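Dock 3-thiaglutaryl-CoA; give full complex structure.
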Amino acid sequence: MPKTDLFESPDYYQIDELLTDEHKLIRKSVRDWVKREISPIIEDYAQRSEFPKQLLKGLAEIGAFGPTMPIKYGGLGLDYMAYGLIMQEIERGDSGIRSTASVQGSLVMYPIFAYGSEEQRLKYLPKLASGELMGCFGLTEPDHGSDPGGMTTNFKDAGSHYLLNGAKMWISNAPFADIAIVWAKSEQDKIHGLIVERGMEGFSTPETHNKWSLRASATGELVFDNVKVPKENLLPNVSGLKGPLGCLNQARYGIAWGALGAAMDCYDSALRYAKERQQFGRPIASFQLQQKKLAEMITEITKAQLLVWRLAVLKNENRATPAQISMAKRNSVETAVNIAREARQILGAMGITGEYPVMRHMMNLESVITYEGTHDIHLLITGLDITGEEAFK
Ligand code: TGC
Ligand code: FAD
């Protein structure tokens, strides 16, 4: 049943005054699109555990795929504030849809742009920006998640081509992607990025089922059984773990903004419900316990908004460090998870139904807190940054 989306974004500290008119216009156009295209259908797709593929064209049209890329390659040449706002608005609709946009822009287009040859850029980027081609990013393996440096997926020089073997797991967009950016070790034990195309013999992408989280996002494996990859598909300009981790900086930045969108939607739903729902002859918003929850939500959202706004300024100036991005990703997702859990309680029994977006956000955020570096890993990155002592190994 189509639902009316009444979302209004909180701006408790007049942070909008820190945005340009162009930023506000971009946010409005994405928000209108989300209200029109995502909100009415997302609950059904999440319940059915199906990715709404028909949204891809619209996502491309609103500039969700690589908005910071130069116009020459099909991007919009926007700044990182605009990129953050786009991710915030899309994840306000659903984390799974934001995942698709993050992967396409930050994890597929970015490595081709940053590490690819000019031929690779011209061949792939415009088609990825328009959604004509969709991509996925294969770093995680069954036995190597937080520790991707231990990967065993590998390729050998077979003269006219490379021979790729191994498997990746938990890969967003894998079941329908046309291309995959795959990180694999060479015979010299160096990590490189390869562009693997659907249809290459020995390459398959089985879908992962039975998820309770990100149900409207398609997740799968990437399996490589002696796949012949043309030599021109190797990304020539990077080697080592810094290649994939450099892409993660881009995507984690987007999540820092995106998760706040989910938090705002939960807060907005809970506030509206608390004002309308009557118990003991009064709106539940009049009870101190409910006010505490709501007041803490808006406080945490406001703090996180200021953090990501400042991060965007630093990123625009090319001064945002990976550790600063880790802190923001971790903080925003924790904020969102806590707010979703509290909002669900304010809604009482209604909170467990699909009549409201809260439980869907809550379950989605359990993936967001794990992917792109777990909550623990980001804390350890901050720990390393401030102490100089590595506690991973
Ligand atoms: P370590 O020895 O620290 O570093 C290896 C090399 O990488 C460099 N480096 C970075 N470069 C760029 N950006 C960063 N953020 C970087 N972090 C490290 C580092 O300088 C070094 O360079 P060099 O030249 O000296 O070789 O590596 P480590 O093996 O100790 O691991 C460090 C650790 C644990 C922080 C890292 O591996 C990590 O971040 N693990 C988490 C893995 C992760 O985030 N996986 C995400 C998979 S993709 C995904 O989840 C997509 S979900 C998308 C969606 O649906 O939205
Ligand atoms: P593990 O690394 O096994 O960690 C398990 C637990 O141990 C965690 O709590 C972790 O914090 C903790 N831990 C690990 N190491 C340490 C340590 N040194 N110190 C303290 N604690 C530690 N990956 C991709 O490559 N591409 C994708 O598109 C992608 N999409 C995803 C989509 C979804 C829905 C999900 C759930 C995951 C996706 N991932 C993807 C994988 C994701 O990045 C990994 O799940 C994540 O990096 C964690 O790896 P893991 O699940 O193997 O957990």
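Observed: The chain has a mean pLDDT of 97.
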